[in-house]
Amino acid sequence: MHYPTLTVRQTLEFALSCHINNAGYSAPTKEIYKDAVLKMLIRIFGLGRCQDTIVGNELIRGISGGERKRLSIAEQVAAGAEIGIWDGSTKGLDASSALEFVRALKSFTDILKKSAICSFYQTSDSMYRLFDRVMVSYYLHFFYILLNII
Fold this sequence. Notes:
Layout: H1 8-21, H2 27-44, H3 65-79, E1 83-87, H4 95-112, E2 115-119, H5 125-128, H6 138-149
Parallel strand pairs: 1-2
Helix pairs in contact: 1-2, 1-3, 3-4
């Protein structure tokens, strides 16, 4: 969930502020750190083009679905999350946006030495090759669908 009227930059600044205020940084160090991390997140996750665009939602036009997914990863990084859990995170994305999302997630885990646990309903071979460990659970998915139907 995002605040639909905030821009991408404001969303990341808010997430950073929540994390930094609890980390005990002094005032000048806090601003320097915040600016540096904000620029890094925008660059790594390819959000430079949309940084001044509102996030939006179902009623307010904003950034694309792929950009929203990458913003979610950037928020996790900004908040200092050690493990990211992504359930069905590529649902509704076209193949190229889904691959872009997984690449951004892979960059996040490699650069910051964090972990991500993901579930995808359909993956391309290109996406599959990006993961370090893969578990395929056909039957679990089948029962999940059954439970939703009943």
